[in-house]
Design a protein that fits this description.
Blueprint (H helix, E strand, L loop, with lengths): L3 E3 L13 H16 L3 E3 L4 E7 L3 E4 L2 E7 L4 E4 L4 E13 L2 E3 L2 E9 L4 E3 L2 E3 L1 E4 L4 E3 L2 E3 L9 H14 L1
Parallel strand pairs: 2-4, 3-5, 4-6, 5-7, 6-7, 7-8, 7-9, 8-10, 9-11, 9-12, 10-13, 11-14
Antiparallel strand pairs: 1-2
């Protein structure tokens, strides 16, 4: 039982109510996430703090704090519970999210998602059955996730790997 696992394990889709196109779309997302060397917090993991990432992250466990990325994608799985302010490129939320979400591109709230907090995104998709309590600002011109700490961290990381 490790904290992070690179890539994804086998994709389990047992919901017989999903159409073939929905299943194929989910499989493409899972495989794309695996190609991007995604970080994965398993269901038995609880973390508090700040997470900075540049590719993709899937959370099925619990996280509390702050999440920052300029180009990354966040996936909160059905068992995932996040209490954080999140700044990402894209987010797909199936579980519980308490905090503000700012996405430079797209946010998808899946059927049983719970989002309590404000949301800003260029594009928003909300499925039937979602619980969303907060303010929503969808702007086709997009939002910038300006955070000097993240930019400085990214520069330091690149210097340290050279």
């Amino acid at each position: 039982m490790g904290l992070f696992r690179k890539g994804t394990e086998e994709t389990k889709i047992n919901d017989e109510t999903k159409s073939d196109s929905e299943i194929k779309r989910e499989l493409r997302k899972e495989s794309k996430m695996g190609e991007e060397k995604a970080a994965y917090l398993t269901q038995d993991v609880e973390i508090k703090g700040t997470i900075k990432f540049s590719n993709a992250m899937k959370i099925d466990g619990k996280f509390e704090g702050e999440m920052l990325t300029e180009e990354g994608e966040l996936f909160v799985g059905k068992t995932g519970s996040v209490k954080a302010n999140v700044k990402v490129k894209n987010a797909v939320i199936e579980g519980r999210m308490d905090g503000n979400v700012t996405a430079t591109e797209k946010v998808e709230l899946k059927e049983k998602a719970h989002l309590v907090g404000d949301l800003k995104a260029r594009t928003l998709v909300i499925e039937e059955g979602v619980v969303f309590v907060g303010n929503c600002n969808v702007n086709p011109d997009g939002f910038k996730t300006e955070n000097t700490n993240f930019k400085e961290w990214k520069k330091e990381t690149k210097k340290g790997t050279e």
